[in-house]
Design a protein that fits this description.
Blueprint (H helix, E strand, L loop, with lengths): L14 H21 L4 H10 L10 H35 L2 H4 L2 H7 L16 E2 L4 H9 L5 E3 L8 H4 L2 H9 L2 H9 L3 E2 L8 H4 L4 H4 L9 E6 L2 H7 L19 E6 L2 E2 L12 E7 L2 E7 L10 E5 L4 E4 L4 E7 L5 E7 L2
Parallel strand pairs: 1-2
Antiparallel strand pairs: 2-10, 3-4, 4-5, 5-12, 6-11, 7-10, 7-12, 8-9, 8-11
């Protein structure tokens, strides 16, 4: 979903921000509709029916529309393809955000979830310790989230990972920065950054979240093997994952200061995820899917330094809020 701001995007807005803005506007519309008495299911049903609108009887208006669609519209499309073919091809080929962030298509095309497992769940279960067998039985492959406290206390990442650490690591591996741009994903959220490389160029004062400096929060996925090997020198696979489980080759990293982290969204990843809080505190709000809203509750859980949250981010809408104090740094991955 990397975005480079080319191909006719208005100045100051890259495609990532446009997609984010579209999602936020649709979310606002959904909340407004629910506030007026509509349920989530009714909103989704309405969006679904948009794909199959009712047909009006053929009359003068219908004939005019038929003429426009069969004569004038093809001419206009043909002229557009002739004069802007290179830009159009590049726009669709180079920007997977067009597909990956389409809220309506992902919601309409999503398979229905099984809601029984979150029935009567009013809080995220919290464990001081949990065995792999217990984790598999209760949480591993279903929609029930879990919080395991103190699960990262032996990781050297707790003292090692910082803004400067990541900056030095990536600037010493320029091919990894390029990979984030072309093969992985960068999430600018509410910042002006268009790439991880640009984010690492912020001033030392802003990076340190000094008073008076603009706040920031962003995230990215790493798919460079050299950087991955270095990162995994400082963290291990969570102890409660079963031996048969295989982790994704991707690392997901998010960091920044107090305020809103990620807006309300639903992920489109293949597996459930774990995320370790290495610094700071973050509160997650988990919102059930529309088909589960009458069975399951909205949940809130605060993840403190050293904790790991486990969640199927394909099955819960979620948003995060960063607490004041230390910078929030998290790393996570998917597992099967």
């Amino acid at each position: 979903m990397s975005s480079n701001g080319k191909h006719g995007v208005p100045k100051g807005l890259n495609k990532e921000k446009l997609c984010q803005k579209l999602t936020e506007e649709i979310t606002k519309l959904k909340e407004k509709s629910c506030g007026r008495g509509l349920s989530n299911a009714e909103v989704v049903d309405f969006l679904t029916r948009l794909r199959h609108p009712r047909r009006e009887p053929a009359g003068i208006g219908a004939k005019v529309r038929w003429l426009a669609l069969t004569v004038f519209f093809p001419i206009a499309v043909g002229l557009l393809l002739i004069y802007a073919r290179h830009e159009i091809v590049a726009y669709f080929v180079e920007d997977p955000c067009l597909i990956g962030s389409n809220f309506i298509l992902s919601e309409v095309g999503r398979p229905l979830a099984s809601c029984e497992l979150c029935r009567n769940l009013t809080a995220v279960p919290v464990y001081d310790t949990i065995t792999p067998a217990e984790f598999v039985a209760k949480h591993a492959y279903n929609i029930r989230p879990a919080l395991i406290t103190g699960a990262t206390t032996t990781w050297t990442a707790m003292e090692t990972f910082s803004f400067n650490y990541f900056k030095e690591l990536y600037t010493s591996h320029p091919e990894a920065l390029q990979a984030v741009e072309e093969e992985c994903q960068f999430f600018p959220y509410n910042t002006e950054f268009t790439s991880l490389e640009e984010a690492f160029k912020m001033s030392p004062e802003r990076a340190a979240l000094k008073e008076g400096e603009r706040n920031w929060y962003f995230g990215w996925s790493n798919c460079d093997p050299l950087v991955a090997a270095e990162l995994r020198r400082h963290y291990q696979r969570p102890y409660f994952l079963p031996d048969s489980s295989e982790s994704s080759a991707l690392d997901w990293i998010f960091m920044g200061g107090a305020g809103r982290g990620a807006g309300i969204h639903l992920d489109n990843v293949a597996k459930p995820s774990w995320q370790a809080q290495l610094s700071g505190r973050k509160t997650w709000t988990l919102i059930p899917l529309p088909e589960c809203e009458d069975i399951c509750h909205t949940l809130k859980v605060t993840v403190n330094t050293g904790d790991i949250i486990v969640l199927d981010t394909n099955q819960w809408y979620h948003t995060t809020q960063i607490h004041p104090g230390k910078i929030s740094i998290t790393i996570g991955s998917e597992f099967d």
